[in-house]
């Protein structure tokens, strides 16, 4: 028998949605406002988006963010996938311990991770710059890739791999033609999530970035300290749209992978 939920739960959910999304909606709306005054609507315009393209500092921050995101995504996707494949064959005891270590960057606060990496770079005398930002992003992005690929491997089973081995396939051919196609939706989803996390990261980057490695979130933070301008609203809107599109794309590949699995397991 289904029990009806209490009306207060619905009201609470609605208030939470309003609290989370109304400020984001206001940023998007005022990015098209034809005035620099935030609370005064003077008409619709695209001029603040056009001015972003002419701003040298914005373009430098954008290129830094894209460079860091692309390099860290490639590295973290490779390392996270290899870690998921390697830990798959460990014993239960060791696997639980290693899983805890791999999950650690996901659960610890960003400020702790940023501070610990800053201390590490200072101890080994590595100058802060774009390289340190990339290393930091690989550190936390790898865990997200690992989580997604591990979940995909857990749902795949070993039947097809065992069948390929019984038919004479080598370990490489089994991985190439059986395992990799099965986990590819998880790998792509993990890569998209890693790219999104890297592109949006502020806290960790703030600790390990040097003077010439300012990313977009750090640039936005520096500008907001002087006051919220329409250009900042436009820049935040673009970041929001890109992040939402990447998350939706990652979810699409995850759902596609689940659909393929269900299709393959239908009885003939």
Short description:
The protein is 78% helix and 0% strand. It is mainly α and 268 residues long.
Description:
By secondary structure, the protein is mostly helical. The protein has one domain: MetI-like (MetI-like fold). The chain contains 11 helices and no strands. Helix 3 runs parallel beside helix 6, helix 3 packs antiparallel against helix 8 and helix 6 packs across helix 8. The longest helix is centred in the C-terminal third of the chain and has 35 residues. It is globular and about 70 Å long. The two termini are about 35 Å apart. The C terminus is likely disordered.
CATH fold-level topology = MetI-like fold
Largest sheet: none
Q: Which segments are poorly predicted (pLDDT under 50) over 5 or more consecutive residues?
A: 263-268
**Number of separate helices:** 11
Report the CATH architecture: Orthogonal Bundle
Assembly state (oligomeric)? single chain
User: What percentage of the residues does DSSP assign to strands (E)?
Assistant: under 5%
Rg, nearest Å: 23 Å
Range of helix content: over 70%
CATH top-level class: Mainly Alpha
Rounded mean pLDDT score: 83
Shape: globular
Structural class by SSE content: mainly alpha
Number of domains: 1
